[in-house]
Design brief:
single chain; 343 residues; alpha+beta; six-stranded mixed beta sheet; 23% strand
Length: 343
């Protein structure tokens, strides 16, 4: 066979192989968790912490540099935080950004620290990873771009997420340090609350008017799909609720007052609906962020139950906060943009 013919046959075989591989991956990805909660690529998301490779090498250990800057992975069961259960916050070892709380850590059995949800979704960014010839979702620190690990959908309820992170990428801050207000993990003057009560357009508008609420954002939480779209949530198959995440000043409004206001702006006895909207995505729910919020919400709900205001029992769920995915921009501050809400 002539050389030119051999080359042509080789090129054709390569193209066919690539086409087959792309088709196979497209098939495998149909039900895979959706990646890219933030834009992909180093140039797409400006980092607040930027250092040269030489600078990173000077402040990181060789293992940390390999994991965080070269996307390496430590050996399973070798990391110092794999079998570690102290209370506190796990921060990025590169820039100190709080990433995961100890109460969100669990034993997955894979040999790496595993978490169900991050401290704040804005602290992470997600990318497609085909390095092992199959699609995975890589997790990075959104502040300095450090590689942390991967996120899978084989975790426990209620998030079903499994953040598998290398110990080398983490720096643990004990609870005493956090409470003392250390520079890396000091709590801000505001706190976060998350509620769901039907269409989030109206809920956001009503919660935002309460004095002491400093910011609101609408999104999806309580489900099992990573970064769902509005269309996916509307299928009632992802498990998410249309929710509102509230930032509030506890010096101006207590969490209990927030809960009372929330319960007053909708019918908390309706199951999987609110007004004309029906489906589990419209359920009434309080997603507590810590035990204090859980206790406060439970007390307010019990008081309302015994008040005789409603003939039926409250249908409002009281469940742990899980991954919160910001909804598409056109949903944000919908009332301010259009002057209408769902109900």
């Amino acid at each position: 066979m002539r050389t030119s013919v051999k080359i042509a046959v080789l090129v054709l075989a390569t193209l066919l192989g690539l086409a087959w591989w792309r088709g196979l991956n497209a098939l495998l990805e149909r039900d895979a968790p959706r990646p890219a909660l933030t834009p992909q690529g180093e140039q797409d998301m400006p980092k607040k912490v930027k250092k040269s490779e030489k600078e990173w090498k000077s402040i990181l250990t060789p293992e940390q540099f390999d994991v965080m800057r070269k996307c390496g992975t430590e050996r399973p069961f070798s990391g110092k935080y794999n079998d570690f259960w102290a209370k506190g916050v796990y921060a990025c070892a590169g820039c100190g950004t709080p990433l995961f709380r100890s109460e969100m850590k669990y034993e997955h059995g894979t040999g790496w620290p595993s978490f169900t949800t991050p401290v704040d979704e804005k602290a992470l960014e997600y990318r497609d990873d085909y390095s092992l010839l199959a699609k995975r979702i890589e997790v990075r620190c959104a502040i300095c771009g450090a590689h942390l690990g991967h996120v899978f959908d084989d975790g426990p309820e209620p998030t079903f997420l499994h953040y598998c992170v290398s110990s080398a990428a983490l720096d643990f801050k004990p609870e005493a340090t956090v409470q003392a207000g250390g520079p890396e993990t000091a709590a801000s003057a505001t706190e976060t609350a998350t509620f769901a009560a039907g269409c989030f357009w109206g809920v956001e508008h009503k919660l935002a008017k309460l004095p002491g609420v400093t910011a609101t954002v609408v999104g999806y939480t309580g489900g099992k799909t990573v970064d769902p779209t509005y269309e996916e949530v509307c299928t009632d198959k992802t498990g998410h609720a249309e929710a509102v995440q509230v930032t509030f000043d506890p010096k101006r409004v207590s969490y209990a007052s927030l809960v009372r206001h929330f319960l007053s702006i909708h019918d908390p006895t309706q199951v999987d609906r609110q007004g004309p909207d029906r489906g589990t995505q419209y359920r009434s729910a309080i997603f507590f962020h810590d035990d204090d919020q859980k206790a406060a919400a439970r007390k307010v709900m019990d008081e309302l139950e015994t008040s005789g205001k409603y003939r039926k029992r409250l249908a409002t769920e009281l469940v742990p906060a899980s991954a919160f995915y910001k909804a598409e921009e056109y949903h944000q501050k919908y009332y301010e943009k259009h002057g209408v809400v769902c109900y």
